[in-house]
Amino acid sequence: MTRDIIDINDFTILVETANSNEPSIDSCLFDESVIAVAFYGSGNVDLAVKYGDQQKIFNHTKGLALSFYADQKVEFEHTVSASKPLECIVIATSTSNLDKLPNQEGELFGEMLHQLVHPKDHYVEGPHFLMTPEMQSIVEQVFHTRYEGKAKMMFFKSQMTSLLAHFFGQLSIASKSSIPQQERERLQLAKKILSENIDTPPSLSELSQQIGLNTFKLKKNFKELFGVPVFKYLQNERLTLAHKMIRNQEATVQEAAWHVGYESLGSFSNAFEKKFGYRPSQIK
Q1: CATH architecture of residue range(s) 2-176
Q2: Tell me: the pLDDT tens digits for 182-200?
Q3: Residues of the chain with CATH 1.10.10.60
Q4: End-to-end CA gap in the chain
Q5: Got the DSSP string for 116-182?
Q6: Are 143 and 17 in contact (CB under 8 A)?
């Protein structure tokens, strides 16, 4: 397990990874009351939030952005296993620091995370959603940067600011959206289904039937809510997974292409270069 704790202005950044061949528990508590946003990478670790005699379970954390208020009595438990490693970034600030945050960030917290700024329990869950492809790309870069020392600190600072900006941007879009809450939940389900079936995704009509929305609403509202069309999101997920497999030497370029559903190596390489700016064969 590795845990980097970085102080940037009045934010504390926790970047944590853990791997284990056998199921094990990684536990985390805060030593003061905080308002925080957690961003989960591709590990898809299980999360249990425990406070008093209550607990909240998250069995699918891959790509999750979760905001919350927690005091010293709240324990966060990650169940780590070989198939579910931990990749988690937490951006936190103490409630006493809100008025000191730069660039009117404290006002953003008060306006968009009102229930967290004025908590009514030891743990209060705020808005949470699956990240956009842009946010997932930032998280992926943070966990696999090669920078060290001062360059790494500068990189982290810029990426944390960008993550928070995207998070509040998504909250702003959601607050102005005309999509009913029930439909937003169905669209979140559609996103989850695509993420879990990258190599053999359902067709648009099949996905529509699975979530209970007609194809017109699925296409229109998916793009409005997540900023990309349905199968552009799927393509981003495919290419991100392929990049990870090649980088970690889990597969050759050809094998990675097949694994994420590309039959043509040429089509895969062209799409990969368009997204990342270099060919898959250039990954070091």
Answers
A1: Sandwich (2.60)
A2: 888 899 889 889 888 887 8
A3: 181-282
A4: 24
A5: HHS-SSSEEEEEEEEPPHHHHHHHHHHHT----HHHHHHHHHHHHHHHHHHHHHHHHHHHH--S-HH
A6: yes
CB 65 within 8 A of CB 126: no
CA dihedral of residues 223, 91, 64, 274 (deg, nearest 10): 50
Please provide residue 27's backbone torsions phi and psi, each rounded to the nearest 5 degrees: -110, 145
Answer whether 65's CB lies under 8 Å from 130's CB.
yes
pLDDT tens, position by position, 196-223: 888 788 999 999 999 999 999 999 988 8
Looking at CATH, the fold of the domain delimited by 181-282 is given as Arc Repressor Mutant, subunit A (1.10.10)
Q: Do residues 88 and 163 lie in contact, with contact meaning Cβ atoms separated by under 8 Å?
A: no
**CB contact at 8 A, 16 and 80:** no
DSSP state of 67: E
Both tokens assigned to 279: 């060919």
> Considering only CA atoms, which of 260, 261, 263, 234 is closest in space to residue 245?
260
Q: Amino acid identity, residue 110?
A: G
**Of 228, 230, 229, 242, which is closest to residue 271 (Cα–Cα)?**
242
- In 3-state terms the chain splits into helix, strand, coil percentages (rounded to 5) of 45, 25, 30
The amino acid sitting at 254 is: Q
Contact 16, 36 (CB under 8 A): no
